[in-house]
Structures are given as C-alpha cells and as structure tokens.
C-alpha cells in the first residue's frame, strides 16, 4: 500500500506536521487509502516523509480533528471518511435557523417514512432491543433537563439501521445531531413549559414509532413517522410565521 502513495518528503522549511497531514489528507481524498483501510504504521510513515514519530503523531492528531481517521489501540489508524467532517453536509446545517430546520424536515419526511416502514418489515429482535435502549437514553436525557438532540438522532439512526439497507444507513450517518431541530431556538426563545411540552410530545411519538416497529406494523410505523415529522414541520412553520411556538 505504501508504494501507491505519491508523497513528497518534507523539507526543513515546511511546517512538518501540517505538511504531512495535508499530504495524507490528499491521499485519502484521492482514494489511495479507502474508507475502512488502515494507514501505514508510524515507522512506515516516518520513512516515507523523512520525519520523526513525533511529527507523524501530530499529523495524525490533525487528521483526527478533521474527522478523517480514528486510532484504536492494537489496531492502528483507520480511515473514516474521504472528506473533512466540517465540509460534510451535516456541518453546514444551522439547527437554530428556521429555514434550515424546515428544509431538513422536508427531506426527512420523504426519507424516514419509508425507512420506518422498511424497519418494521425487516427488524431483528436485536435491533428492537437497540431501539428500546435509545428510547430509554432519550428518556434519561429528558429527566436530566437536557434537550436530548444526540439521543433523538441516535433513535432515528437506529431505525435506518434496522432497514437493512446499507445506503439508507450511510445516508443518515452523514448527518449528526444537527439534523434534529430545537437547540438554541427552543432553549433561549421559548418558555420552559413550552419546551417541556414539546419534548414530551416527541417522547410519546417515539414510543408510538417504537411499538409499531416492534409489532411489525409497517403501515402503522410509516404513518407514525410521517405524523411525527409532519407535526414538527408545521410547528416550526407556525413559529416562522407568527414567532410563536405552541
């Protein structure tokens, strides 16, 4: 694999770690190292670039900060994606901007209603257990007074996973919790009672979706997801029109 790299040895005038990181990023983007593959070892990279292990480690840290790679003890450093995380679609979403929230919800309605139907048809008992665990995590976050955006996202991602369609799962994985609305919009603009009421409604809708998937009720699951997202869409649409959240 090392022989496939088009690497320039780093000169003394260069910022060593940044130069190494930039070249590795280019190699990843070009497909010289595929997603899931491991980078060469530290020693191999030292020989390639003509730098010390300290420089290589600093360069790897820079790649980690971009979300391109991850390092596991005893395994090595593997490629996670071919683009820096902040250039991905999810990182361009402002979860506090009404226009972004409405656009994302329009997309989610079209994708997740079908995903929920497929999940009900194809889910395994293990996937039901995972959905139940994510529902419980959402509940626990609410009990701590949190907005539970991460837990909300993970519940919906688990539904896409249960479709057994790898492309649906990968499509949703490119997002992060930014795909879940509320954040500062709910936290700062709205009264706490409105926030709590909204989150409790989200909880009850999640429970309905979970039960439909658990019972293999495909049509019910599809409708429950549509209602869940459509209600959120109209809620934020009314907020945009009237600056009132109810």
From TrEMBL:
Pfam family, one: GntR
HTH gntR-type domain boundaries: 14-82
Alphabetized InterPro entries for the sequence: GntR_C (IPR011711), TF_FadR/GntR_C (IPR008920), Tscrpt_reg_HTH_GntR (IPR000524), WH-like_DNA-bd_sf (IPR036388), WH_DNA-bd_sf (IPR036390)
UniProt entry keywords in alphabetical sequence: DNA-binding, Transcription, Transcription regulation
Single GO MF annotation: DNA-binding transcription factor activity
Superkingdom of the source species: Bacteria
Name of this protein: HTH-type transcriptional regulator LutR
Organism: Marinomonas spartinae
Gene name in the database record: lutR_2
